[in-house]
Every structure is written in structure tokens, then in C-alpha cells.
Design goal:
Distance between the termini: 42 Å
Largest sheet: 4 strands, mixed
Oligomer: single chain
Helix content: 10-25%
Structural class: mainly beta
Strand content: 35-45%
Shape: globular
Length: about 150
């Protein structure tokens, strides 16, 4: 008797979900600082979700799903309370492909992000790959990496 192997057939990451302490301020940051576009908004009362939005990058390949602070959505770790420090868990940061790392970093800072690691270029691995990146803390607290598109 032959068993058929089931493949996951993953195509890529569909979206990254963020719970925002201040929904409008967080949406404004991604839209104005990083040029995402709001695709649509919705609510789901059964999850105590008043505001949710799907934001798309310029190329339409990266999506960010944004939830309000009261939403009861499955997540990693404990929920951060007002004024609490960020709790580190398995998710460390997410990286956004950009053409100009310095421009993305500057725009993020101009729109309320705080510096984490300034733009730098270094060699990574063997054989070496030249990598240019920078990291910021968004106004909502998530760590964003801006990564030049030519890494791999």
C-alpha cells in the first residue's frame, strides 16, 4: 500500500500582522513613512476587533495586516500593556526590501521611528555577500529592518 506524500506547497509569506497601540498613528506611519497603501478595512465583533486594515507595499508583494489594540487575535507571547517594555519572543524583527536603505531609514525616523542600527554595509557568509541594511523601532514598537534588494 503506497502512501501519498502531502506537500505544504508554501508560496511565500502572505502578510505580517501587527497589533497597534494607536491604530491610526501606526497606519499613518506605514502609509506616509514607508509608502504602503491601505487596501481595505474591516471589523470582526466576534474577536473584539473594531478596526483592521490590510496595507500593501508598492510592489504589492508585501502585506501588513493591522489590528486595533483591543482585538483578541492569536499572537505570540503576552500582550503588551500601556507603558510596558517590549517583550522579546521568537519573532525578532521583520525586514522590508528597499532600493535605498538610507532613504527608508531617514523617512522612518522623520515619521516617528527611533534608531536601532544605522545604515551600514558589511560582508555576510561564505562566499561573501555584500549586505546593506538598517533597523528602526517603529512608533508602535516593532523592529523593522530595511534591506537592500540585492542580498540574495
Amino acid at each position: 500500500q503506497s502512501q501519498e506524500k502531502t506537500m505544504a506547497n508554501v508560496k511565500g509569506i502572505a502578510h505580517i500582522a501587527i497589533q497597534a497601540e494607536d491604530f491610526e498613528k501606526t497606519a499613518d506611519f506605514y502609509i506616509n513613512a514607508l509608502e504602503f497603501t491601505e487596501v481595505y478595512r474591516w471589523s470582526l465583533p466576534q474577536y473584539n476587533l473594531e478596526k483592521a486594515a490590510m496595507l500593501a507595499s508598492n510592489d504589492g508583494l508585501t502585506m501588513i495586516e493591522l489590528f486595533d489594540s483591543k482585538a483578541e487575535i492569536a499572537g505570540q507571547g503576552r500582550k503588551r500593556g500601556p507603558g510596558d517594555e517590549i517583550v522579546k519572543g521568537a519573532l525578532l524583527h521583520f525586514a522590508l526590501r528597499v532600493d535605498d536603505v538610507q532613504a527608508a531609514y531617514d523617512s522612518a525616523l522623520k515619521h516617528g521611528a527611533t534608531p536601532c542600527i544605522p545604515p551600514s554595509t558589511f560582508e555576510l557568509g561564505h562566499p561573501g555577500k555584500t549586505v546593506t541594511n538598517a533597523l528602526v523601532y517603529s512608533p508602535n514598537g516593532e523592529v523593522l529592518e530595511f534591506l537592500a534588494t540585492t542580498i540574495f
